[in-house]
Every structure is written in structure tokens, then in C-alpha cells.
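Now for one record.
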Amino acid sequence: MGRTANKWVILILCWIIWGFIASDRMLLTYVAPALIPDMKISMTEFGLAMSVLTITWAIMAGIAGYISDVIGRVRVITIAGLLFSATTWLTGIVRNFGQLLGVRALVGIGEGSYWGPGVSIINRAWPKERRGFALGFHQSGFPVLGVLVAGSLTGWLTSIYGWRVPFYVYGVAGIIVTIIFYALVKEPETEITFPDPKDTEKLDVKALFKSRNFIVNLVIMSLWMIVYWSIATFLPVYLTNVKGLTISFAGFMAGFTGLIGFVGMWSAGAYSDNIGRKPALAIAFICALVGIPLLVMTGSFLALAIALILVGYGLYAVYPLTLASIPADVAPPILVGTAAGITMLVSEVVGILGPILGGYFNDIYGLGASFWLAFGIAIVNLIILSLVMEETAPKKRPVRE
């Protein structure tokens, strides 16, 4: 089979790569119940280990999005995949906190380089009318492969072989997937040609910031990153230390939120094409606001499961809208990759506060305090959405800003 620009081939392979990115990023949270005592680190230090990846991810998200708009998406995605997979493998051999910080920073460089090119190549391959579906499906790779599959598999591997083995497995598998992507995918042919980097009119990034919705979306997505990482970073260790679950079962339950997240990402991206981005975001925010208190206060397994369903849907349904669909709605066509990259960059920088503040609050007030931090910020986001953002979906707002 030769290289192709078929929209389904591109979408499925990018979905798998995004899933591996999610897995490699989340592995640290799944092995936390074993890693934290083994390396003798505090919750605050664990939060820093999560955040250092976020810093380098954010930097590369903006840079790589711009570069891919100039030299092509396939090249950048391939380099990114090889880098984050190799450094994920290296995570398994670290022996102290300093080494852990350094290697996770390298993982972030590779993973952050994927987002802008990934969104852009899908955006080019799929028609505008189905863009919300395609980008929503793509985003669902995070909860399906990165949370559902990786959470369950990593919990099992860790309980039997220790916390280092999952990093070896995912590092090798990621390299294989990246090679397959490069062998099969070529740049989609569109009416938009790659611009000359000296052509400042076509590459006027400042045009993005003339859009009110682009800026408001940046604020909403940035705050949501704090919400997400305040919960996701500490959920497995919370389930083991507070709820009394085993490491393997805690990994399964954390992975369960990925199954719900898949439904949220896929459905929200698709139905937002019809009902609008604002109503779809409002539904996600409300689900999280109901689920977070239930997660903390529940004493029964049934209530815990219901809480994880609501939280899982709420957390993940936001992402295809704020990171992909809305930037694609409001950006000039030639700058879609750049717009997605900037959104990822800014939101990841702000999201650094999630693991750091969450870890600090958990050390002082006990595990679960970071969830209340997320609850308060989710309320702020719902207010901003209701009062400030305008609708951007093409069917609801057919004229591009």
C-alpha cells in the first residue's frame, strides 16, 4: 500500500498517535501509587513532575504548529512521535526526582509538537461540514487509548511487574505506530498551498487575536486545563489512598472515565455541529459541576461510578470544542494549525497550575482538596461561557470571522 491522503486513514492514524500521546502523559498518574513511595516524593513534587512536561509541551505546541504550516504536517508529526516515544521509554530507567523531571520535560517536547500539525492535517483532509465530527473523533483517542486502555493496562502491569514496565511497553509501541504513520500518510491536497515564510500577509498571526471568540476560547480552555489536571493527576492515588481500591482496580476505574470521555468527545464534537459550540460546552461544564462533589462526598460504589461518569463526560467533552473546533471556526484557513497550536500553548501554560496547586492543597488539606479547586474554576468557566462567548459553529454562524 502506497502513501495516501485518504481522510479516514489520516483520521484513524492520528487518533492512534493522539492516544499514545495521552497514554505516555498519563502513565505517571497511573503508576503514582507505586512510584511516589518508591521514589520517596511528596504530592507537591509529584505535581511538579506532571507540570514540567506541561511547560515543554506548551512551548512546542505553539512553535510546531507554526512550523507545520510552513514545511508540512507529516514531517513534524513523525519527528514528534519518535521523540516522545523514545523518551517515554527512558522514563522507566530514572532513579531519582531530578532525572524524572528531566526526562518528562523531553517527553513534553515531543508530545507538544504533535497537536497543531495533527489538527491541521485532519482539518485539511475533511470537509468543513464534517470537521466537528472528525476533530471530535480525533480527540476521543485521549480518553479511549490514554485513559480507558492505558489506565486499565498500566494498573495491571504495575501490580504484577512494577511501575517501570509500562513505560518500556508504551515507548516501543509508540515508535512502531509512528513508523506506520510515516509509511502510509502523505499531505492532503487542498486549494491552500504552503506559504512562503516571508509572506507576512498570509502568515499574520496577529489576525487571530482580532477575533473576540478566539481570545475568549483561550481563557475558557486555559481555565479548563487547571480543572482537568487538578482532577486527573490525583485521581488514581485518591482512589487507592482514600477510597481503598487496589492499584489495578483504581487504574481500571480511572480508565472507566476514559470510556465515558470517548462518548463525550465524539458526541460533543458531532452534535456541536448542529446545536452549536456554546450549548455543547454548557452541557459539559454542568456534568462536571454535578459529578465533582459527588466524587468527593460519596460513600458507596454505585455513587462513585455515577460520579466518575459525570466527571468523565464533563472533563473530556470540552476538549474537541475548545482545542480544535472553535479555533478552526474562527481562524483564517491558512492559520488553523497555528491557531490550534497557540490555544494548546496558552492553555497548557496556565494548566501548569493544576498539578502544582492541586498537589500543594492535597499536602495541606488532604487528598481531595484539588477536586474542590477544580469545582470552583468550573463555575467561573460556566459564567464566562454564558456571558461573553458568541456562537462559532458554521451552521449557526456561517460567515467566518
